[in-house]
Structures are given as structure tokens and as C-alpha cells.
Specification:
heterotrimer; A alpha/beta (250); B alpha/beta (481); C alpha/beta (401); A: alpha/beta; Rossmann fold; six-stranded mixed sheet; four-stranded antiparallel sheet; 39% helix; C: alpha/beta; nine-stranded parallel sheet; 19 strands; 18% helix; 39% strand
């Protein structure tokens, strides 16, 4: 589904990602862990096509298509979803209106019929309920006045409604208490199937306990330095990221 | 008036400690303003012809102008023919060193807490002391010379560094700029000159102390600071005057030039005589201060603590010409009795990625009026320029006024401007809370006012932060009892 | 600028009707004070020089075409090219319209040259109407000010609107200029004790110079709310002052101006707390696109003795193009204690991060930008009630985005 080959990403003159390789197959869940400043969020933004994140070398292929050629909204229509580490507040724009506009824009881009409002509302309500979010949030402005946890859960609601093929979740677990974390994990698990893949970017192992990733990668200084199964995340939790330095010195 | 207000009023009644008069023989040019007086000033200073010509051009321009009337001030008519434009303590010869200076003058500055003689000098601060129209001496000359820094009186600079004066004088504040700048350009008598060579970090704080002493005399000093590429300087300015019944005029011009990557920090603690509690006497402080961030990555920072003057009209400004240049303005202005202040800043963003920050704290008590007037302008070329402004006013009593007049102009679609202003008073609940924790009323008010001003005080160099705090504390003395 | 004065107010053309003395006095003042220029503080960002170039006749065409129909039931007072035809009116119960008495027009003072346009109105008004609302209205009352495409006159409408004690009303000024003349309105609105007015100003002008001076007085416990949607015109100058005269008076202004190429819109608002125990709030937003110029001057004045008053003003502004310009000046003038007064002001642009966020959810750039602009501009309209009114205003806004 996703093939990243020797990816280099720079912000201005500073290279952040320095030759990253990653392959994600259909239905797989990959976790990317790493210390602060290792380039985790940069990877998410580069995948979603944020301006200013320049791909200086390498390639990103998504379902055989060159992702780097596409605008952010074209990537979304192609089935890529990024859950933001810091979801953006958009004052004055109604949450439900926003989500429906987004869904219909994607459907239109794919040559599909617009969704009718009854089906739409039903889908959204189900997602809201499963994440224990108040339906009143639909009438509020996007992310405005939401608590930190509500914002993160709202990202999962959006994912459930937009039904992407690949979801990149950037530190969706940070700032959540344990109950909210469980809800988010359940929300993610409910969306898992053989056709949908996930890249879960996280600093901590605790979310992975609920997700049971197929692969765990350790990102350090812009490269994947270690890959393995869930045991790797447990080792990171126990030993911290300092072992990376020890290994690189050795 | 409720009890709190009374307490606070009492607390804020400032005792003016610098109000004494030095009895010293003065060499004064006759009162009045005409070409002859200007020629006499120029002759006293033995100036070259170009300097006199410049003064006369300024004078002729001034004659075509009328005084500003847009500030939120009531300015009584000033009779410019009644003012003496030059007064100097009589000295036989120009003193060669501080040892030759009249002991009475040294004593005056001693009393003001600015000792000039070797033994008691302020550590780490070079002082230029200006008494009425002339500089009486500059400390630490030798040390500064070693670093290549020029710090001398303006008159000396005209003699010793004419090429620098000719290049930079009026290049930031032309004599056509405004009424009082034109007047100053015609009659300025002395002031300080600072030149920091390329790549030099000035080894100590530089300071000028202004003292108006003689009767019916205006003080028209001129300060010029030039910071060559990559240099740093921190400059401090202090001012006092005797208590007199009549108003005295102070119309200074300060020009700062910061070239590429240069940094200038300019701090003022202004404690001119504010007049008595009935509004009689006091200094009219009409000052033009402007810094030009001429080079890329340059920075100019203004900090001012204003407690004096009957009327203050003053807008230290930054022209952010160089790309990525930065301007800052931090101000505390306290007015009481019948004082009037109309002060603020202008941040003119011309270069790309320029930034500016304005923090203004106004405290008004008694029958005073305290206005913030500011301009933030984003010119068409000022891509990605940023400004943040915060103006807070504290009202003490029912008869004062606090006003905010920010002009915000943007012609660039990538520039961002943020402005916030609040007006409030020292609340009964705040005072009560402090007292319930065991603080006396006086301490509580001092603490609240100090907290209100903290953001500005922390920008002052250590020596001045202490003085500024002390100044407010003097104002707060004798609250209880 | 005296050439303008002689052109706009030739002494020989002053009507010698029952208002004659009033007109002559106003004319004298006008000549004495002169016309504002860019040195006049209140006109610092707006020049009226464009009037020099216009040849304006004294009367416009009698027909001005129909105003756009509103999506809700309303009673309409048509004002065609500045004139109301009293024979064509069908006023609801509790509303009456009558010519103002000369006694209502004496002792008016518009100050120096900053008030020149108001003096001009007083010298030259064609009609002066007193609109009295004596009973709570069930439907909005609409003042539909329309001008025709061949309109090239100077007109000076004058209105005095009074709400009786305890009355509630929605008054909509629906302004649609299609001409290229001068429309110079002076309007006084008085809210008696306990009355409630929702005052809507919806404007979409063509090439006329539109100068409107609205002065609102609010008595004890009365509540004034203004909802303004200004979609611009060649030159619009709106002065809106709200005077809180007695304890319990409340004044609120929510406004949006969208200004596009070749448009200049200048709003000067003032909220004056004349006594204590009065509250006010204002939110005003400008979006300037193309070569549009927007000006907002928002003043809060709390007079001596007006203790225990509270006021807050917020203005947020967006520059959408390289050539657009916005100048703003929020002002606080405070002479009382026990008050809280604050303002916040920003000028900026659409947030890149918000734009990116919308795009990652699949919205194309144009749609994402329109949505952000809408979100920005619709916020002050949220307070408009009833819902049908809010829906109409937001729909009007959408037509220009």
C-alpha cells in the first residue's frame, strides 16, 4: 500500500529526514517510535503534503501512485488520512458542516455520489457515541473550545467518517488520560480490516499495548534504526531511547 | 471616594527628592529666539560654519510651523521669546579632567546619586553629566577609548568627529520632522555622542544624566548613537530638575542608528519635576526619540520609566528598515496630580521579516491624564512582519483619565498584527487579599503596582531597575500612619 | 476644498421652506468650518476628494427599481433614490411616519469640519421623516433604500426613529445602491426606557458615495443591538455612535465588512457610557480583497462618574490580497473608576495551518479558503436573531465568497 524509499525531507535548509525506508502492506499496523526531534511529525506532514516540507530525495508511493506529485486534498481523496498531533481550531466553521463538505469533496474527486444528510448524520452519530463524545460537538466550530482529549477523539471520529485506506496517526495518544486512551484505541481497532492500513506515530508504548502492532520501527535522527515486532516497543519502554546511542557508539 | 482610593491616593503622592537648586554662577544667553541668539549659541561652542548653517535652516523651517494639537493634552501657550536657550555654569576654562570641575557641580550630582569623582563612581557605568546646556564631564574616558568606543558630549564630538556628525546628524530625525524637533535643531546646546566601532561590544553601560538648574531655561539636548555592524551598546538616561513655580521646557532629540546586526538598548528613567499638587510648575517634556534599524538583523530596544514632567509628549520609535530587524518598546508611565502624559511608540515596518513588540503600562492617579498613543505600520514590502502590542492602564481614583489610541495600519497581506489593551483599577479585593495575608496597605499597593510594571522593569539594566523601583517606592512612601 | 462646498451647497439653492432658518444656519456653519481633509483626524484614512470630480444633479430619477425580496415576512418602507413616497406606504399597526417638526431640528451641533457632511445634510435635506414605533412589532420593519443605475444626484435623507417605552422591534436597513451619486444620510434613533431594538444594516452598493451618520440614544434598561453586514461600495463612510444615557442601558454592535477591488469602506463606531451601570460590547471584522481598503475606528468612551460600567471591543481583520489595505484604530477613553474596559485588535491573514488541515481532509484550495473566510466573517452574525434573519445575512455573505 505504502512504499517509502530513501526519503529525505528538509524544512528550509535543515534536513530532518535523512534516508527513510518503510513499506506498509494492506491491513497492517505499523508503529513508529522515537525520541523528540527524531523526525516523527515531519514524516506525517511530508506524507500529507504540507507546504515547506521539501522532499529533497527519495520517493513515496501510495497504491502504485507517486504521492509527492499530489496536492494535500488529492492525497486525501486517494485515501490518505493524517490525524494531527495538534488538531487545528477553525473558528466559525461548524463541525458537522466541515466534515460533510470534506467527505463530499473526496467523493466528488473519486467520481462518487454525494452522501445524503441522513446517512451522513447516522455515521457521524455512531462514531461520536462509540468515542463517548457529546453530539452537541457537531454544532460547535471545528476543534474550537475542545479539550485536548476531545480534539484527539475528534480526529478519530473524522477518520471513521472519511474511511481512508491509510491512516497516519501522529501522537494521537499524547495528552490523553487512560480512559480516553482506551476509547481512542478501541476507535482505531474498530476501523481495522484487511484493506485498511495504519501508521501510528507515538512516543510511548502504552497505546501499542491496546493496538498490537504488526511492526514496530524506531526512528532516530531521520532514519529508521531498528525494526521488529511488539517486543521492540516493550524494550524501548523498559530501557528508554538511550540504548540507541549506546548502539550507535558501539 | 471609597477608602481604598483614599489610601492609594495617599500612597501615590510623590515626594520629589530632586527638587533642590544649586547656587552657581551661570553664563546665560539673553532670553528670546532669533538668528542672533542661534549665532551666539554656535559661537559659544566654537562651531564650524556648516553647523551654524544647519541650525539656521532648522530655525527658518520652524518659523513656518505650528505646534502639534492632536495629542490628548492641554498645552498652555508657550512664549518662546521668554525662554533662555543657553545657560551654563560659569567655569574659567573648559575643565581638562573631572578634577578641574567646580566642586559645587560635583556635589550636585553627588546629591542626585550620580557621583562623578574617581572614588565613588558607579561601577561599570560611564556617565556623561549634563548641567543646563553643557556637559560637565564624562567618566571612564580612558577605559572606553581602549575599546575604541567614543562617548563624549555632543559639543566635543562636533569638534573632534565632524565627519560622523555631518553624516548622521538629522539622518533619523530631520529638522523638518516636527515642531519641537525643528526647534531643537536650531538651538540645541549639548548632549551625548556615542560611536561603537564594528564588532565591538561596549565594555560598560553608558549613561547620561540631565539636570536643568537655571531659571527660565529650556534644555535642548541632542543625543546621537551610532552602532556600526555587529556592535552592541546599552545606554541609560536620567533626568531631574529643581522645583519651580514656572514651567520649563525640555525639547530633546535622540537619534539612534543601528547598522547590520548591531544592537542598541536605550533606557530612560525620567523624573523631571512634575509640578506641585495644584498643577503649578513642572517641566514640559516634548521629546523626539527615534531609532533607525538601518541594517539587516539589527535591533533597537527602548525602555522608559516616566514619573515626572507636567506634560509629556514623547514617542520613542523604531524604523525597521533592515530585513529581520527588530524593535521593542517597554514603558511605564505614572501620572498624578495634574500631570498629563501622551506617550507611546511608532513601529514602522519596512523590511521583510521584521518584528516588533510593545508593552506599555500606564498608571494614572489624582487629576492626571495618561494616554498611550501608538502607531504600527506594515508597509507593502514588509513581508511576514510581526507586531505584538499590549497596553494596560491602571486607574487610581475617580478624577483621572486613562486613554489608549493605537493606530494600526497594514498594507501587507503576509504581515500579522496583534494588539490588546485593558483598563482596570487596584481592586478592593486585591488589597484585601494581600492584607489578609498580613501585608500592610503600603506594601500591598507597592506590590500590586510593582507586579503591574514587572514586565517593563525586567527589561531595564540592573543599575536602573533598582533606581526605577526605588522611584516608585518613594512615591509609595508614608502610606500608613 | 471650498470648491466642493460651493458645488455641494450653493447658497442660492437652499430651499426657503419652513426649515429655512435651520438650513441657513447649517449652511453658515458648513462654510465657516470647511470640508474635512486627510489632516482631519476623523477623516484620516478616507478622502472625499472624489466628490470634486462628480457632476451631481439636485434630484434623482423618481423610480429606483424593487429591493431584493427577503426570505421572511416583513413590512417594507421603500426609499427610492433617497425619497419616501408617503402615498405608497402600507404601514403596520403601531408605526407612523410623519415629517419632522422644525422644532426637532434646532440646536443641533455637528462640531467642526469633521461633521461637515452632517451640516450639509441639515442645510440640504429633501425630506426629514419621523418614524415612531409605538407597539411591539411582530414582523421586521424594513427600510429599503434603493437607488437606480441612472442615479447621479446628491440626496440627503434625514430620519428620526423613536421606539416607545417597552416596545420591541427589528428594523432592517436594506441598502442597495446601483448608481453613481451621493447619498448622505443623517439618522437619529432613540430607544425609550425598557425598549429593545435589533438594528440591521445590510449594504451592497455600487458607485455612489455613501455617507451615513447614525446616532443612537439608549435610555434606562433599554437594549440596542446592531447587526451589520457591509458588502461595500465605491466609497462608504458609516458613523455609528451609541450613547448609553441611563443606568441599565445596553449597547452591542456586531459587524462584518467584506471589501473588494475599487471599494473603500470606513466604519467609525463610538460607544459612549454617559452614566454608570451601563454595558457595551462590540465585535467588528473586516476582510479586504483585491485593491479594497478597509478602515475601522472603534471608540469606547466612559465618562467621569460612569462608574461600574463595562465595555469590551474586539476587532479582527483579514488582508486577503497583496494590494488590499486595512487601517484600524480601537480607542479607549476612560475617566471613571470601577470600570473594566478592554479591546483587542488583530490584522492578519488566513491561517496556513487551518488551510492545510482542511486540505488534508479532502477540500480543494478554493473551497477550503471560502470555508475559512466564511467561518471568519460569519462569527459576528451569529448573534443575529431571529434565526430567519441570521440565515438571510449569512446567505448574503455566502454570495460574495
Amino acid at each position: 500500500m505504502l512504499k517509502i524509499n530513501n526519503l529525505h525531507v528538509a524544512i528550509g535548509d535543515t534536513e530532518i529526514i535523512k534516508g527513510l525506508d518503510l513499506e506498509v502492506g494492506s491491513g497492517e499496523l505499523h508503529a513508529i517510535m522515537g525520541p523528540n526531534g527524531s523526525g516523527k511529525s515531519t514524516l506525517g506532514y511530508a506524507l500529507a503534503g504540507r507546504e515547506g516540507y521539501e522532499i529533497t530525495a527519495g520517493s513515496i508511493e501510495f497504491e502504485g501512485q507517486d504521492l509527492t506529485e499530489l496536492e494535500p486534498e488529492e492525497r486525501a481523496a486517494a485515501g490518505l488520512f493524517l490525524a494531527f498531533q495538534y488538531p487545528v481550531e477553525i473558528p466559525g466553521v461548524n463541525n458537522a458542516y466541515f466534515l460533510r463538505s470534506a467527505l463530499n469533496a473526496q467523493r466528488k474527486a473519486r467520481g462518487e455520489e454525494e452522501i445524503d444528510s441522513i446517512t451522513f448524520l447516522k455515521t457521524v452519530r455512531e462514531s461520536l457515541n462509540s468515542l463517548k463524545m457529546d453530539e452537541a460537538l457537531l454544532k460547535r466550530a471545528v476543534n474550537e473550545g475542545f479539550s485536548g482529549g476531545e480534539k484527539k477523539r475528534n480526529e478519530i471520529v473524522q477518520m471513521a467518517v472519511l474511511q481512508p485506506k491509510l491512516a497516519v496517526l501522529d501522537e494521537t495518544d499524547s495528552g490523553l488520560d487512560i480512559d480516553a486512551l482506551k476509547l481512542v484505541a478501541e476507535g482505531i481497532n474498530a476501523q481495522r480490516n484487511a484493506q485498511r492500513s495504519f501508521v501510528v506515530i507515538t512516543h510511548y508504548q502504552r497505546l501499542l499495548d491496546y493496538l498490537a502492532p504488526d511492526h514496530v520501527h524506531v526512528l532516530s535522527d531521520g532514519r529508521i534504526v531498528e525494526s521488529g515486532g511488539q517486543e521492540l516497543s516493550e524494550r524501548l519502554e523498559a530501557e528508554g531511547y538511550s540504548f540507541l546511542e549506546a548502539e550507535s557508539e558501539a | 471616594m471609597n477608602q481604598t482610593t483614599q489610601q492609594v491616593e495617599k500612597v501615590i503622592q510623590q515626594r520629589y527628592k530632586a527638587g533642590f537648586f544649586t547656587d552657581i554662577e551661570s553664563d546665560q544667553i539673553r532670553a528670546g529666539l532669533d538668528e542672533e541668539v542661534i549665532a551666539m549659541i554656535s559661537a559659544k561652542k566654537n562651531e564650524p560654519v556648516w553647523m551654524l548653517e544647519w541650525r539656521l535652516k532648522a530655525f527658518h523651517h520652524w518659523q513656518t510651523m505650528t505646534g502639534p494639537n492632536w495629542a490628548h493634552l492641554k498645552i498652555p501657550g508657550i512664549d518662546f521669546q521668554k525662554i533662555h536657550y543657553y545657560a551654563a555654569p560659569k567655569q574659567k576654562n573648559r575643565p581638562k579632567s573631572l578634577d578641574d570641575v567646580d566642586p559645587k557641580l560635583l556635589e550636585t550630582f553627588d546629591k542626585l546619586g550620580v557621583p562623578l569623582h574617581e572614588r565613588a563612581r558607579l561601577a561599570g557605568v560611564a556617565v556623561d553629566a549634563v548641567f543646563d546646556s553643557v556637559s560637565v564631564g564624562t567618566t571612564f574616558q580612558k577605559e572606553l577609548k581602549e575599546a575604541g568606543v567614543i562617548f563624549c558630549s555632543f559639543s566635543e564630538a562636533v569638534q573632534d568627529h565632524p565627519e560622523l556628525i555631518r553624516e548622521y546628524l538629522g539622518s533619523v530625525v530631520p529638522y523638518t520632522d516636527n515642531y519641537f524637533a525643528a526647534l531643537n535643531s536650531a538651538v540645541f546646546s549639548d548632549g551625548s555622542f556615542v560611536y561603537i566601532p564594528k564588532g565591538t561590544r561596549c565594555p560598560m553601560e553608558l549613561s547620561t544624566y540631565f539636570r536643568i538648574n537655571a531659571r527660565d531655561t529650556g534644555q535642548f539636548e541632542r543625543t546621537l548613537i551610532i552602532a556600526e555592524p555587529g556592535s552592541h551598546v546599552s545606554y541609560l538616561e536620567g533626568c531631574t530638575a529643581p522645583m519651580r513655580d514656572e514651567n520649563q521646557l525640555h525639547a530633546a532629540v535622540v537619534e539612534l542608528v543601528a547598522l547590520e546586526k548591531a544592537q542598541i538598548k536605550y533606557s530612560t528613567v525620567q523624573n523631571w519635576y512634575p509640578g506641585d499638587e495644584n498643577g503649578k510648575g513642572g517641566i514640559y517634556n516634548f521629546v523626539t526619540k527615534r531609532g533607525d534599524c538601518r541594517g539587516d538583523d539589527s535591533r533597537i530596544s527602548w525602555t522608559q520609566v516616566e514619573t515626572g514632567s507636567a506634560i509629556t509628549w514623547k514617542y520613542p520609535s523604531c524604523i525597521l528598515r533592515g530585513d529581520r530587524s527588530a524593535g521593542e518598546f517597554y514603558s511605564v508611565a505614572l501620572t498624578h496630580n495634574h500631570q498629563q502624559a501622551d506617550t507611546g511608540t511608532k513601529m514602522i515596518h519596512l523590511g521583510k521579516n521584521t518584528t516588533s513588540k510593545v508593552i506599555s503600562k500606564g498608571i494614572s492617579a489624582g487629576k492626571s491624564n495618561n494616554s498611550y498613543r501608538g502607531l504600527v505600520r506594515m508597509a507593502r514590502r514588509a513581508d511576514n512582519a510581526r507586531n505584538y502590542t499590549q497596553c494596560d492602564s491602571l486607574l487610581i481614583g475617580k478624577t483621572c483619565g486613562a486613554h489608549t489610541f493605537p493606530y494600526i495600519e497594514s498594507s501587507n497581506a503576509t504581515a500579522k498584527i496583534e494588539h490588546e489593551a485593558t483598563t482596570s483599577r487596584i481592586g478592593d479585593d486585591q488589597l484585601f487579599y494581600c492584607r489578609a495575608r498580613g501585608l500592610g496597605e503600603e506594601d500591598a499597593v507597592a506590590m500590586i503596582v510593582d507586579g503591574f510594571c514587572k514586565e517593563v522593569f525586567k527589561e531595564l539594566p540592573m543599575e536602573f531597575a533598582v533606581e526605577a523601583k526605588a522611584l516608585l517606592e518613594i512615591s509609595l512612601e508614608g502610606a500608613v500612619g | 476644498m471650498s470648491a466642493i462646498l460651493n458645488k455641494l451647497a450653493p447658497e442660492s439653492e437652499l430651499a426657503d421652506d419652513r426649515y429655512g432658518d435651520i438650513r441657513r444656519r447649517a449652511h453658515q456653519r458648513l462654510m465657516q468650518y470647511g470640508f474635512p481633509d486627510l489632516k482631519t483626524e476623523a477623516w484620516k484614512y478616507t478622502s472625499l476628494r472624489v466628490l470634486e470630480k462628480r457632476e451631481l444633479s439636485a434630484t434623482g430619477p423618481s423610480e429606483a427599481g424593487q429591493p431584493a425580496t427577503l426570505p421572511f415576512e416583513a413590512d417594507v418602507i421603500p426609499m427610492a433614490n433617497g425619497l419616501i413616497d408617503p402615498d405608497r406606504l402600507n404601514l403596520p399597526a403601531g408605526v407612523r411616519l410623519e415629517p419632522m417638526a422644525p422644532a426637532d431640528l434646532i440646536n443641533l451641533d455637528y462640531g467642526d469640519r469633521a461633521g461637515a457632511m452632517a451640516w450639509l445634510n441639515l442645510a440640504r435635506f429633501e425630506q426629514a421623516w419621523r418614524l415612531v414605533i409605538d407597539a411591539t412589532l411582530e414582523r421586521p420593519l424594513v427600510l429599503a433604500m434603493t437607488s437606480s443605475s441612472d442615479f447621479a444626484a446628491s440626496v440627503h435623507p434625514r430620519l428620526q426613529i423613536e421606539l416607545a417605552a417597552g416596545v420591541e422591534a427589528v428594523l432592517i436597513e436594506q441598502q442597495a445602491d446601483r448608481g453613481a451619486g451621493l447619498i448622505n444620510i443623517v439618522e437619529d434613533i432613540a430607544l425609550a426606557r425598557g425598549s429593545k431594538l435589533r438594528h440591521v444594516i445590510q449594504r451592497r452598493n455600487a458607485d455612489s458615495i455613501w455617507v451615513q451618520r447614525t446616532r443612537v440614544t439608549v435610555s434606562a434598561d433599554a437594549d440596542y443591538r446592531c447587526h451589520a453586514l457591509d458588502l461595500g461600495g465605491r466609497l462608504v463612510r458609516q458613523d455609528l455612535s451609541v450613547h448609553l444615557l441611563e443606568a441599565g442601558a445596553n449597547g452591542e454592535i456586531d459587524g462584518v465588512a467584506f471589501i473588494d477591488s475599487k471599494q473603500h469602506v470606513d466604519w467609525h463606531t463610538a460607544i459612549d457610557h454617559e452614566v454608570g451601570h451601563t454595558n457595551s460590547r462590540e465585535s467588528f471584522r473586516i476582510m479586504a480583497d483585491g485593491t479594497g481598503v478597509g478602515v475601522f475606528n472603534g471608540r469606547i468612551h466612559i465618562q467621569r462618574g460612569a462608574d461600574d460600567s463595562h465595555s469590551d471591543l474586539n476587532t479582527a481583520n483579514l488582508l486577503l490580497s497583496e494590494s488590499a489595505r486595512i487601517n484600524i484604530k480601537p480607542e479607549l477613553e476612560i475617566y471613571a473608576e470601577e470600570v473594566t474596559a478592554s479591546h483587542g485588535a488583530t490584522i492578519g491573514q488566513l491561517e496556513d495551518s487551518a488551510l492545510f488541515y482542511l486540505r488534508t481532509r479532502g477540500l480543494p484550495v478554493d473551497q477550503a479558503m471560502a470555508l475559512l473566510k466564511y467561518g471568519f466573517a460569519a462569527a459576528p452574525l451569529e448573534n443575529a436573531e431571529p434565526e430567519a434573519l441570521r440565515d438571510w445575512l449569512t446567505a448574503e455573505l455566502e454570495t460574495v465568497l
